[in-house]
Amino acid sequence: MGSDVFTLVEHVGGTVDDSTHELLGKARELATATGGRSVACLLHSGARAGADGLAADVVLSVEHPALEHFLPEAYVKALAALVADHEPRVVLVANSTVGMDVAGGLSARTGNGLVAYCNAITLEGDTLVAISQVFGGKLNAEVAVEGPAICSVVSGSFAPATGGSPDIQDVTASGIDNLTTTFLARIEPEASDVDITAEDILVSVGRGIGGADNIEFAQELADALGGVVSGSRPVTDAGWLSKTRQVGKSGQKVKPKLYIACGISGAPEHLEGMSDAELIIAINSDANAPIFDVAHFGTTEDVLDVLPALTEQIEAAVA
């Protein structure tokens, strides 16, 4: 087992995802503890996706036609080959759609222990200790892994690393010439009348709103504030809002100045998409809802009572 800390670089269209910079921040800290290097693993086809600016000691750049688009089988085999060659102490991946596809397969292929939904990671000698969110974020489990480990990390858990002039090394990863799966097409999301990622104020609704008819209360508040309505996955799955307004891991990651969570419990998948908001206000009748762990202000009053009252106060203040 070596002392390096690996980070899988997530990128689309040449743009590195914010989650990668957060992982590189933690990788730098862990590498200092192990006496190793922070190593970014960049899998691509013909584009280095901002490798020069990655805050890592080393970038292992793997170029292959099968890596033009994200293909789980190709990513797992390529990353497993790098792990076999370099034997890192820890591999960090984002707890994203990409990361979840890769982490389980990588663990099975390498035999290295996997801890998912991490929001804290420390090293105590040869033991890695991680805090993992379980039961939809309602409990935190402390997990110890002896030997090399893989951690999938919840977005927003660590401060991003900035700046970097890494040593970029072009390497070959074996095992990806003969794949059993093929990338067919990338399906773009449907067009929307609004881009929630560009909005400063979001009034976001969850199942606690009670039904599609009650979204009008959130809309009235959003109108009074000059914002727009967004929602959690259960709301968009139910057809109460368009998928383009979904906040969370399988929706959009947003960073508004104000995020009002209305009847949203705060599952890890949702928190991943909005925990970086500057100001978070939570309205939920369950005092133990995980949303209160990230909220700056909150109330357990009935959301259908609070929304009209807020709207009335705001309209009176600006009249």
UniProtKB/TrEMBL annotation:
Matching Pfam families, A to Z? ETF, ETF_alpha
Recorded superkingdom: Bacteria
Give residue ranges for domain Electron transfer flavoprotein alpha/beta-subunit N-terminal.
5-187
Q: Which InterPro entries match?
A: DHS-like_NAD/FAD-binding_dom (IPR029035), ETF_a/b_N (IPR014730), ETF_a/FixB (IPR001308), ETF_asu_C (IPR014731), Rossmann-like_a/b/a_fold (IPR014729)
Q: Which SUPFAM superfamilies match?
A: Adenine nucleotide alpha hydrolases-like (SSF52402), DHS-like NAD/FAD-binding domain (SSF52467)
Q: Which family does it belong to?
A: Belongs to the ETF alpha-subunit/FixB family.
Quaternary structure and interacting proteins, as annotated: Heterodimer of an alpha and a beta subunit.
Main function: The electron transfer flavoprotein serves as a specific electron acceptor for other dehydrogenases. It transfers the electrons to the main respiratory chain via ETF-ubiquinone oxidoreductase (ETF dehydrogenase).
Q: What is this protein called?
A: Electron transfer flavoprotein subunit alpha/FixB family protein
Organism per entry = Paraconexibacter antarcticus
